[in-house]
Amino acid sequence: MTTTVTASGLGLRYGGTRALDDVSLRLTPGVTGLLGPNGAGKTTLLRVLATAVPADRGSFTVLGHDPGTSRGRHQVRRSLGYLPQTPGLHPDFSAFEFVDYVAILKELTDRTARHREVRRVLEEVDLGDVRGRRIKKLSGGMRQRVALAAALVGDPGFLVLDEPTVGLDPEQRMRFRELIAGAGEGRTVLLSTHQTEDVAMLCHRVLVMARGRILFAGTPAELTARAAGRVWSSTERAPGAKAGWRTGTGSFRNVGDPPADAELLEPTLEDGYLLTLDDVSAEAAA
Ligand SMILES: Nc1ncnc2c1ncn2[C@@H]1O[C@H](COP(=O)(O)OP(=O)(O)OP(=O)(O)O)[C@@H](O)[C@H]1O
C-alpha cells in the first residue's frame, strides 16, 4: 500500500523531558490508531505532524511534501485536517459560522464555493439541520462533530485526530466511530486515543507509544497476538498476574505469566497493549 506520511528520527525536548525520542513511522491510507499512557508523547507527535510545533530533530513528509521548507510547510497545511484535543470552538458562533471561519483560514477564498464546502462537511457529520444553531446550545457529541467538520474542510488527504471521543457517551462514541471510519476511506487518518476498543473496531494499523518512543507498530491482530498464551482464568488471583480481577462469572481473569496448567483465555487488543507497556517497563527496570 502507498506510504502517505513518513517520519524519521523525530525528537523534541521540553526542558528535561524527552517528549519525542527518535520517532520514525510510516502511515498508509486508512485509520491508524495511536495508543499510549498519559504523557507518552501522543499529542506532541500529532502537533509536530500537523506543523503546529517544529521538532528539534528528524524530518517527515506528508503526501510527498516536506515541511522543512516554507513552500512545503504551506502544502502540508493545505493537505491537512487537524482536530486538536481542545478544539477552541467559539461558543457564540453558529456551527456554520465556525466552520466557515476555519474555511477562510484554510484560504478558501471564493465565497460561494466556500459556503458550498461548509454545507458539505456539516452534512457529512450529520449537522446539516442544526448548522444555524449556536455552538453553546449543542451537545458535547455535536460540538465534537463541528470540530470534525472543521478538520474535514477542503477534503484534506491527511487527518489528525487527537482523542476525539473523550467525554462522549457510548452512543455518541459509536456515531463518531462511524464518521471516523468514513473519513478513513481513501484518506490517511492518525487517531490518538485511550480507547483500545476504538482501535480494535476502526483501525487497520496501530502504533503504541510510551516515554516519547514508538514501542509497537503493526496491525491490531498483531498487537492482540502479543498476549496469546498470557491471559488465563483462575478461581483466585494468580501470583504470576500483572493484572487480575474477578469477573462477573466469579472467576479471575489474569494477564501476565500463567502457570503451566493454566486455563488460557482468548486475548483482547487491550491485553496486548498492556503487556507491551509492561514488558518495556520491565526491560527498563532490569
Ligand atoms: N508545552 C509543553 N511544555 C512542557 N512540557 C510539555 C509540553 N507539552 C507536553 N509536555 C510534556 O511532554 C510529555 C509528552 O506530553 P504529551 O501531551 O505529548 O503526551 P500525551 O501522550 O498526549 O498525553 P495525554 O494522553 O495525557 O494527552 C509529557 O511529559 C508532558 O508533560
Automatic annotation (TrEMBL):
Keyword ATP-binding: yes
Keyword Nucleotidyltransferase attributed: no
Keyword line: ATP-binding, Nucleotide-binding, Transport
Signal peptide feature range: none
GO molecular function: ATP binding; ATP hydrolysis activity
Matches recorded under InterPro entries: AAA+_ATPase, ABC_transporter-like_ATP-bd, ABC_transporter-like_CS, P-loop_NTPase
Coiled-coil region: none
Protein origin, superkingdom: Bacteria
Annotated spans, Disordered: 238-259
Residue ranges constituting the ABC transporter domain according to the UniProt record: 5-236
Family under the similarity heading: Belongs to the ABC transporter superfamily.
Protein name listed in UniProt: ABC transporter ATP-binding protein
